[in-house]
Amino acid sequence: MSTPSRVHDLMIVFDAITGGSVGVTALKEAIPDTINFVALADCFERIGVLAYRNYTSDNVIQWSGWCSPFSATSTPSQDDILNFVKALEAPDDSEYKSNPASKAALAKAYQEMRAGQNATILLLYTHAPPMFEHTSGRSETSSGYYKFEQLQLLLEYEVTGQFFRDWVTGAHILAGNGFHTKRAVVLSFGSNFSISNWSPYLYLSTMTGGGFYLTTYSGRVISRLTIGLLLVWMRADGNIDIPESSKVALKRDLTTHTVSEADIERSCGRYSDNLEKTNTLAGPRSCLRVRYDSVNTDNGQFSIYTSRNLARKYIDGDEDYKNVIVEQLDRIISTNVSVIAIHPFYGQLWRAVCSDQTGNNNIKRSLLGKFRAQVSQIPDARDKQAQTWLEESYTFFHEINEEISALPANRQFPLVCVDPDTIDLQGNQYDAALTRAQLLNIWKSCDMDILGRLGNVLIRMHYVQQEKDMPASMTNSWPCLTPRIPLALIMPEYGGKF
Q1: End-to-end CA distance of the chain
Q2: Does 244 lie in the same domain as 113?
Q3: Helices vs. strands in the chain: H and E counts, helices first
Q4: Which of 191, 212, 260, 458 is most buried, judged by most C-beta within 10 A?
Q5: Mean pLDDT, residues 210-221
């Protein structure tokens, strides 16, 4: 059963001041990687970025606008969004960095969201708690900024702003409760392991059906964690490697009683006896799933975002769609090639692009050269991961078996096959285990061991014109146990892969 067609938006909201130059620089590194990765999947129609600071800054709220990565006429374009993030100034560490405009940021985010049945996934990267009346009153300065924000919410955001003057009310509005037609699922990220500072964000994420994560604020960790969580939501196939972080959740439902700003700490804080922390490495993958548009991601629905379907979508796409995919791959390779190797999600898509004989082949042929050139410039550990990803992307086993099974009976012959009775004889199992890297190495050095093993495989191959011509020793195993390739797969209509 296929997932119904839906329209999704991704909004990235982050504190661009209280984390200091180190924290903001890490986010400026991670956010473009996230944008490029998810844009290639074409799972979000629109992507936007919102940066917020405090009220001592010249630009308290900066909004990029919405870009549509697969629209040639999108204004702003994806490159405009990436340049917007790049141009954001990291704060001077001598600046006053307290009392961020968190409520105003959510009000602006809500203002820019679209109405309809589909929620917006909102990624919220935080460094400090929002301003509450009972906490801001502890100093005259903080109290002044709290009152200023309360006024600004009314003046700047009109009807919307009044709902976000109170954090609890704002959370319910974002959750789509009542008569409101906009809805967000909030994934919040914090860098401070003092949970009491982050209880408002835990509450917000819980009420909107998202999740709250405590993590290390480095560009690589943040991008890998974010991309991993989005892949989990997308129900991507394969193992999803998520860096070590802590997911914090609530044991008990908060909707059964009234919560106010003043007692969020008591309901969600570290002394509430209501917290459940899960290590993202040790915990089950199911604990990382989030609700999205009321789709239960554990119900076994077939996902349109499997690596195989992404490749098929490219193969079946028109020339304009293929050109956008090639441009997306080129952008990732040119900016941070290690991003594409985080997960084998794009392996089959990469192979489909490189083997495609339609359109501008010069551009596609250049991708592999660019990939190798960029890999040679990254650190050893990431180099190895990228090389492993490239090797794994050429694994055809599942695709070959599917295409063979899909061939009609009248096209199963002629074929080339290997007698299964000979595979385990005289070390032939060892011969059959030749790797792609070993085979490619033959042209560099005529390794006699590899050549001998390849020869042993080739002499066991049979050409069979019709089923009646099958050797007697193979009749009993046909077709289940006989490694074979029907020659029909050489034809152009099957992609000419063999």
Answers
A1: 31
A2: yes
A3: 19, 11
A4: 212
A5: 89
DSSP for 281-349? TTS-GGGG---BTTB-TTS-PBPTTSHHHHHHHHHHS-HHHHHHHHHHHHHHHHHHGGGGGGSGGGHHH
d(CA 432, CA 498): 18
Whole-model pTM: value is 0.78
Residue 228 Rama label (left phi>0; alpha psi -120 to 50; beta): alpha
Q: Interior CA angle at 313 toward 309 and 314, to 5°?
A: 120
pLDDT tens profile 35-86: 998 898 888 899 999 999 988 888 899 999 999 988 888 889 999 999 999 9
Range of the domain at 56: 9-288
Q: Residue 26 falls within a domain, yes or no?
A: yes
Residue 160 φ then ψ, to 5°: -65, -45
Closest CA to 367 of 422, 328, 424: 328
Across all residues in the chain, what is the average pLDDT? 79
Listed residues 371, 395, 419: the one ending a domain: 395
| Rounded Cα distance, 246 and 189, in Å | 10
Please state the domain count of the chain.
3
Q: Which two tokens stand for residue 170?
A: 């704002």
